[in-house]
Predict the structure.
Amino acid sequence: MIKNKSILFNRENLGDCLAIALNKNPQDILMEIRESNLKGRGGAGFPTGTKWMLAAASLANKKYVVCNADEGEPGTFKDRVLLSDFPDLVFEGMVISGYAIGAQKGFMYLRGEYSYLLKQLNDQLEKMLKEKRLGKNILGKGYDFEIEIRLGAGAYVCGEETALIESLEGHRGEARNRPPYPVNTGFMGNPTIVNNVETFVTAAIIMSRGGEWFTKLGTGKSKGHKLVSVSGDCEEPGVYEVPFGISINELLKMVKAKNAKAVQVGGASGYCACEGEFERQISFEDLSTGGSIMIFNQSRDMLHVLRNFMEFFVEESCGQCTPCRIGNKKLLEGVEKIEQGDCSLSYLRELIELGKTMKIASKCGLGQSSPTPFISIMTNFEQEIFSQR
Amino acid sequence: MIDTKQNAMTEEIEMLVGKYGRTRDALMPIIQNIQVNHGMVTDFAQQEVARMLDVHPVEVYGVVTFYSFLSETPKGRYIVRLCKTISCDMAGKEAVARAVERELGVKFGETTRDNKFSLEYINCMGMCDQGPSMLVNDLVFTKLTPHTVVDILNRFK
Amino acid sequence: MDKIVKDNRAPVSQKPLVMAKVDKDAIGATVGIEINGNPYKVMLGTTILEACRENNIHVPTLCYHEDLCLAGVCRVCVVEVEGMNTLQAACTFPIINKVKVRTTSEKVRKARRHVLDLMLSEHYGECYSCHRNGNCELQKLAKEYGVDSYKFGHIQERRYKIDRSSYAVVRDMDKCILCKRCVRTCIDLQEVGVLEAINRGDKTKITTFMDKPLAEVVCISCGQCINRCPTGALKANDPSDEIWNVIDDPSKHVVIQTAPSPRAAIGEEFGLPAGISMTKQMNRALKMIGFDKVFDTNFSADLTIMEEGTELLLRLKKKLVEGDNNVRLPQFTSCSPGWIKYIEHFYPEYLDYLSTCKSPQQMFGAVIKTFYANENKIDPANIVTVALMPCSAKKFECNRPEMNASGFKDVDYGLTTRELAQMIREAGLFLPDLPPDTFDEPFGEASGAGLIFGATGGVMEAALRTAYELVTGRVVPFENLDILPCRGFDGVKQASVKLENVKPEWSFLEGVDLNFMIAHGTANAKKVMEALVRGELSNIHFIEVMACPGGCLGGGGQPIPTSPEIRKKRAEAIYQEDAGLPVRKSHENPHITYIYEKFLTEGPCGHLSHKLLHTHYVKRGKYIG
Ligand SMILES: Cc1cc2nc3c(=O)[nH]c(=O)nc-3n(C[C@H](O)[C@H](O)[C@H](O)COP(=O)(O)O)c2cc1C
Ligand code: SF4
Ligand code: FES
């Protein structure tokens, strides 16, 4: 359930998104999504219109649509809410994108932890098949599209789109080299678009409300509204719809958080803002998030928080590339050293430099973002952390 | 005895292959099914899957060991997976964990003698707003306290 | 060779982009790029690494290997590409537009150094106690980047037990840097599928199915993984200490036979470029080390040709004349022990297609401990036979329990080229400087036919030189005896020779096209076997298979590194030496005539031959219990 009053994720007067879309030609859908300036909701914020257009431009006769429902980023659960409350729009969004790029098949990669949602989702697919909103000759428009749900098996890295594709193909979830990108060489070597659950729902809604309406929401470079999952030290954790550009302070007020000293924006791999930064905004221009907001109050030991994050990355790294596999381990060992009180400042600096290398030299987004909490926490809370031991 | 067990496994895999196909991308669904049905993917099962999909057994092994929900060693009938990520941690996961350990008499990472329960930690399972949370097989339990978690476990005993 | 690399099973995105060879000047075929501020023109689709190498710009690599599909996992080859936020792995980045690349900017140098520091922190052990000291890619990079301390610590305790279970390959995973070259070698290049990465994160390691000892899985002992390991994590099972001991023991008569390939490659161990034959210097070194006799395995290669060629003709006769349907054709060669183990594991139902001939190594061992012992009045119990081989599977082969036709272990030790080079160094010798010396009699003179066994197609060429002449009484109709269709590095080659005007006793072969195939590398062998299973090879008579890419000269015991270019050079050295030899056909080797007159008096495939020179195989299957 979305906790506050929704404007975007609101069914009031929402037309039949799928029917509206299939009445247009694919080119117009692509243009509309592009003009809406919709950016991916999974974290990286790649323009959805561009992604779809690249896939549409390919002449390959097999193309795929993948809905990334792996939602593994710590502190993120908004896709779970969407899958429970808006499964119809998720799937319709997939059909619409398939229609726009010329794909015949879609996969939903649902994280294994959410397998209790599987039945409900399959029922939804069943229903759509019956109503001719899926399968052969959808809504009599002569377009065929099928959707298959595949379960993940407990690996965070499989949220990374190329690792996800590897996993779909039956391999270890190890990220691929990019380029080539999935829009050229994705599932089984065919053009594939991978989008977040929220991206698909938003795209479906744009079909009905229009791209122009959408651009009126949000900020200059971050159009529309975003779902955030709020957890940690606040009275009302949950999923909220917020306009891009909202400040951390406003957000804290909304969820009734008192005494906050740090806010982790974007999950374990995100940035840890300290009190002095609470006027910063949630947006692609400033602090971007795939949907995770975690709040820590004055009583929390930030080193403990950091340790929890680093343990997460050490376990969840796919382990193929050196900077991430060993780098995260070294950062975690650094945290342990600090805990024991024998990390020199020069070594801390060395570790921060290492973190910077990991950000640019790792093979995939996991290793490229995992040092972010280390660097931000050790920069923002260095004094506090060292004074406590 | 072993032979009939193996024959049954081979039949089961043949059925799964019939359903999901013989291409490599059928690998995950097939071994996920085996995992759910048997609590593990035995070395025999891995080799049978490999044979039928024409991949090397060691590749199946590589996949099984990559994913937390797949396992090549036996697990209890009920796998209790308690979230250990920060939001659940701050909500009191530690007390819940100790209560579970005391109740079942085993530590996390272990399986009870009667093979009923395996205790594992899991990384964020998307219930951060209702922590501490856990999965028992694919059922979700949230807002756990030492008392409620014990009640829940008793239901499975 | 290209073929093997392209047909691998790596994910599509990790295969090298293969661009059609087009005219470099055609419009759209090339693209102008900038590396370190200088303009270059490269073919569309080349990787940044290839572009750099073409233009002599050094970019360090570790996980990259010319023979293998791309991995992009070690990250030491990272470079800066203008307009991209992150560094890119040069080895995998395909150039499809005008990129501007920096290969040595501060960011790049710092990142590479960090990557190295990280690897070293987990790399157990010290360089001076490692067999790859001086020939280790990690060590070389540490030097290149001036590593003088362990910035992020250095692991002090072993994490893994060394796996010494295999006769052929020793695995020390504490030295592994997870470049996955061995995995790509085993799964993609050789398609044997023994090694793979398991677990994830910091628990990732390379291992076998269910983490079993190598001896218990389907490893064929080819040792190709060793040749491609950048560090000391993989090595052959080294018997040199024991060999020194028997050399030092005056009661032992220590005989060494040397295969054709080591001599064409051992120079590389002493810093010489690939492709320089060291036959004569090596003879000298072996004598100086203290071997009592130095023989040429080419002699028993000639013997193999006599036996195997005769076996083929007999099979043909049984099939064509007597209509015996139990005879299996095509006949497969059996001199590559890796190939033997491969077919025993993966195609156990097809063992009857193999020639029953032992490999030249084992034939030699059996002959030495019987015929030679007898003629020279030496108690075979006191003879130690060492086989210098380019091969790690030979170590497995000589330990097969059935290999004791002489009543003793026919071959006591298989020694690789690398290990001999080590012994030579230990003896204080510098091979290239040694004066030439000859082999010892009676097994010192051999034909060029035996010599070319070292290259893929060589056995076939040698067999044809003899069989054709046996059947027709004339020399094979190829200029200078060079049967070119047998040469070169295509994965699977096929050709035929027409038999015409045959001798009366072979009249049933009149007008027959003798069809043969040649495959090297087990991935190619697999293709041939699949064709056989499908029943597509009924018109083929003889198939040569070598387990290693390039044949024995690319064997798992040869000097490291290896590459298509290096293997080509070694092959050239072998063919060149063959061309210069006085005797180039097995049946014209005078010692062969002698042994059939004096010892194997019933001739090839006779009774005694069967006892000493032929063998049987084991249906191993691939189920791992
Ligand atoms: C380690 C890692 C984990 C990720 N996990 C998710 C995820 O759980 N869900 C998701 O939608 N995107 C995830 N992403 C982002 C995806 O790679 C990809 O950018 C996204 O699915 C694209 O969809 P979008 O453009 O709609 O955001 C992850 C990225 C990385 C590097
Ligand atoms: S950055 Fe980490 S998760 Fe990504 S490829 Fe490298 S090791 Fe795997
Ligand atoms: S050589 Fe390019 S990443 Fe290893």
Chain B touches chain A at residues 23-29, 32, 35, 53, 55, 62-63, 66-70, 84-87, 89-90, 122-131, 135, 138-140 (CB under 8 Å). Chain B has a mean pLDDT of 95.
